[in-house]
């Protein structure tokens, strides 16, 4: 098992499980989590996890995702018992969870990329193609300002750091507005972040979003839902 460590392991150090299922920029995410932990002043061990039994000792869980919804879901399913372990840790155990890009989208009931693919069903909604007006390009790629729709601890301190980096062609259409934490405008209103209980997801990439992204990751490592 590959492992990245901030400092030495001690009784006050928390462990973050970064899910390694072949569908994410895993090393970039690990570096950004280390930097976020440093900013937060939190001692933290980051483990790249691809086996369910490794989730037991995790204090927090991060699911990155790059590529197509169906491929990412297939990657999760290919790791025997991993989805069940994620559900036990996050839905039953209440461990703080962060989904990034397609990792956020997988929380939906279904994705429509490459046909209909069932998601995890953690936050009710469907992932559909974005269709921006005004001739804007798809995929949506680049820096955009996000607008929080309600206060959330992970979005704290972003008033002057609200431009973040997006790369996507599909967006999360949530069944309930109460689960939308932030939006952005790109020829249409696009869900930028979703949240429910101990679950949080970003359509954008915090690990590529410089100061704003680092602030969010620092908030995540201190978040107690």
Question: What do you see in this structure?
Answer:
The chain is α/β, with parallel strands linked by helices. It has a single domain (3-222), classed as Rossmann fold (3-Layer(aba) Sandwich), CATH 3.40.50.880. 24% of the residues lie in helices and 31% in strands. It contains five helices and 14 strands. It has helices spanning 26-40, 69-78, 82-92, 102-105, 210-222; strands at residues 3-5, 14-19, 44-49, 60-63, 97-100, 110-111, 117-118, 125-129, 140-148, 163-168, 170-174, 180-185, 189-196, 199-202. The strands form two sheets. A ten-stranded mixed β-sheet has the order 1-3-2-4-5-14-13-12-9-10. A four-stranded mixed β-sheet has the order 7-6-8-11, covered by helices on one side. α1 (26-40) links the parallel β2 (14-19) and β3. α1 (26-40) crosses α5. The longest helix has 15 residues, at 26-40. The protein is globular. The protein starts with a strand and ends with a helix. The model is unreliable at 1-11 (pLDDT under 50).
Mean pLDDT: 92
Instruction: Name the beta content range.
Output: 25-35%
CATH architecture: 3-Layer(aba) Sandwich
Describe the largest sheet: 10 strands, mixed
Spatial strand sequence of the major β-sheet = 1-3-2-4-5-14-13-12-9-10
What CATH calls the topology is Rossmann fold
CATH superfamily: Class I glutamine amidotransferase (GATase) domain
Query: What's the SSE pattern?
Result: EEHEEHHEHEEEEEEEEEH
The number of distinct helices, counting runs of at least 4 residues, comes to 5
Please tell me what the overall shape is.
globular
Which spans of ≥5 residues are poorly predicted at pLDDT below 50? 1-11
Query: Considering DSSP H and I runs of 4 or more, what fraction of the residues is helical?
Result: 10-25%
What is the terminal-to-terminal distance? 29 Å
Number of domains: 1
Query: Structural class of the secondary elements?
Result: alpha/beta
Our Rg estimate from Cα atoms comes to 16 Å
Q: List how many beta strands DSSP finds.
A: 14
- Output the CATH class name: Alpha Beta
